[in-house]
Task: structure prediction
Amino acid sequence: MFSSLTTVATQVAVLFILIGIGFLCSKKKIFDEHTVKHITHFILYFVTPTVVINSFNREYDPLLVKKLLISAGCTVLAHSLFIALSYILIHDKAQAKRAVLRYGVIFSNCGYMALPLQNAILGTEGVFLGTAYIGVFNLLTWTFGLVLMSGSFKEISVKKIFINPGIIGIAVGLIIFLTPLKLPVILASPVQHLANLNTPLPMFIIGYYLAQITSFAVLKDAKLLLGIFMRLVICPLIILGAMLLLGIRDNILPAMVIAASAPAAANTTMFAAKYEKDTQTSVTMIAMSTLFSILTMPFLVTLAMSLMK
Result:
């Protein structure tokens, strides 16, 4: 177990060195809000889909299909439990803050933070399984997430649910994986290069958000701390326990725990700003949960890896 802890901690440390570069770029004014917004869009529309497509560009394997379906089922179960838990434990008189805290508890940074770690620890198969989490995440973000943040069902649309980079990437990837079609070298090579950007670029953005913390007075906010604790510790332990009870082991277990133990989703702030919710709380929750995750993720992922057989 100590060997696994060292491996995970090393990979997390590598990610945080990259985060440190983003932090430094923010402090030196190399990055600003405008820059980060455009980098985020680049990652969303080009990098994340190519990561998914690259992981699916492999020979068809019925065992992997079975694992993918199990992963998808586990992800639905995880989010169902997280939603219930957030409504039971997260309360605040201010609806704007309550919505942000609940959103941050339910939705993790399963793309920017989890995929690089899944790839580093489990290889491309880890990313392959992680796409199941991303797929369910995207469907729920553009349905339940929109209602939670906007307070209205009117924001939901078929276009938002199915025509988004995450779902498109998975759809293209499935076509490649389930059919004889495979990417020719002239396409596979640029896809690989773009996919490789999924480790440094998201980490730079997270570093930028960490640099926005100007005071640790936020640590006096008990409700915010509860939300962060739920996101980083309670939620991953719940899905870990549920999967063990269901007899699910193999590399599905650490792949799901990595996604579930990631910090609050980066789009928490995007939705908070769009629907005039508590953006300060959203930025703080993203930054602080990212900071604390360097302590929580190694232990949780190591625990999952020790129980995967």
